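WARN no homologs supplied; continuing
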Amino acid sequence: MLLPDPLSDLLSVLSARTLLSAAIHAKADWSVRFISEGVKFNAVLNGSCCLISESLPEPVHLEAGDCYLLVNCGAYILCSDPDLTPVKASSVFREDYTASLNPDAPGETTFIVGGRIVFDETDASLLLDELPPILLISGKTQEASGIRWMLSRLRDEWHDSRAGGSVAADHLAQLLMVEILRAWQRSAEAPAASWLRAIGDRRVGAAIRLMHADPARQWRLEELAASIGMSRSNFALRFRELAGLSPLDYLVKWRMRLGAKALRTSPAPVSAIAYTLGYQSESAFSNAFKRVTGISPQHYRRMRSESFQPADKRDMPRNGPEPAGHPSSGNQPGF
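OK structure emitted
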């Protein structure tokens, strides 16, 4: 049986979903400029291209099997040659969020799919603050073996138009996002002090899993240390080195994320939510919540209630309209 793990916990708390939504088929010479907002991922399923961005020191050559995550990276260019003048994405994408560039030209077709990661929680900083604007994963690395299989399946689902293909593609995209984060966690480029590094450490990760499994428990530092076979001082030092904060500060922040989700999704009174998270009084929970988020639980719930729309209406359906991501806006949903 699979046990809960911190990354799964966080993606659940953020209500993270990955939706495949756009594609490019390109031949010969081509260059397209995009404006990327939010969190997107692209994958090269066939052929090759170049990626140009101010976030990169130089153009990066991408081949089939390569993929990348975009985190509020701003403008970037996908092209066959860095010397070409790019056109705006709004001029080449159709209503179904696909682009076909020079389809009658001879030669190999470059096929790129794009998707977006949707968070129902507005504060995804615990995950996103650790990621660079562009996170590149080469399909040739050992870490990308699982990614290569998923990209092959994505290509088949996109082209074969089989029953259930849309749902299958979105689930594969969700798995792809997790594999990209895992590959980044293992890479030398990940920051020395980061949440992803912390959960990947055998002992510190075990302590985080204990806190996630029972967040209401009144954990003591020496208790956590003993549970993973470390001294109190060595555990505290190791945890701070990897996570960037103390174990008990982490526990408080995790409780507040759970509290925020409960405030968004449950009609339970604040006092009941406080009790489930280990607080004996509503005021103690409210003080901690405001200290971490900057606003009171009541204010947070009111704000979310006033601005709430069902996620399916906020998100871009693959073949449906939404002004912010419509091809005419220049901001494609998956690119």
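Residues 309-330 have pLDDT under 50 and may be disordered.
OK
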